[in-house]
Amino acid sequence: MVNRKELNPEASPQAAFGARVRKSREARGWTQDELAVLVGYSGRHISAIETGRKPPTLRFSRSLDTVLGLTGTAEAFERTWGELRNGSLLEGFPEYVAYEGRAAEVRLFEVGIVPGLLQTPEYATILAASAVARGAITPEQADERVALVAERQAALVRMPLPLVVVVLDESCIRRSIGETAAMDAQLARLVEFARQPNTMLQVAPFDLAHRPFYLPITVLTMPDRSLMSYAESSQRGHLERESTSVLPMLTAYHQLQAESPSQATSVAMIEQLRKGTP
Description:
The chain is of the alpha/beta class. It folds into two domains: 13-86, lambda repressor-like DNA-binding domains (434 Repressor (Amino-terminal Domain)); 93-117 and 158-274, Endonuclease, Chain A (2-Layer Sandwich). The chain is 50% helix and 12% strand. It has helices at 13-27, 32-39, 43-50, 58-68, 77-86, 93-100, 121-133, 139-155, 171-174, 180-194, 243-259, 263-274; strands at residues 105-110, 163-169, 199-204, 217-221, 227-232, 237-240. A six-stranded mixed sheet has the order 3-2-1-4-5-6, sandwiched between helices. Helix 2 crosses helix 3. The chain is elongated. It starts with 12 loop residues before the first helix and ends with a helix. 27% of the residues are buried. The model has no long low-confidence stretch (mean pLDDT 86).
């Protein structure tokens, strides 16, 4: 075949995905253009996927599974896509998200940026675009990150409503992300969050006397009242299930809440910031 590029599935997970697409296509005797018509993409797109020049998307993977009869099976390309997407996330985070979506109570402390559960789509998009600019992820992975933020937020609007308690370091509301309008919309979202019947929001000021945490931390209470915590380093996330380790974190979190200003005072601080008042 003219201009046929040899593939190396060992080069990367993305290359392995592409090589498998080609193998599946050729096993059925289809050309790239023929497969393209079936999945609703161009032949050039199929070529880019097979040679690893373009990462697959969820929509593409699902279309491929439909055409190949793999939907819902262990061999589904959607499953492989999920592994690829999780590769752009910290190790341990995908496992945490699965528990987060089932938790009865979520308590989190964040530093520097507004946490994903409270982000507006524009705020999340700006952060993802910044990661692309740094070369940390691809534009396609950025899209999936933004989609994951929406998925996580939707999972917490289930019945019965979970209790969601958030303490933000003051840096989260002081650090401007994007243009003024985008940041104002994000601050408005925080105020809206605080008004919900199942939420609590506090801002820990820079001069907080007793600060038990200096890095982000999340404590989950599951429906069976078991506890787990999640924390991140620069390289990976760690999910802790041992109660002997999680209970001290929960106690420290309660101490953080007790030391921090009330929700009313915290919301007033955010509103003053929106108005440009120091």
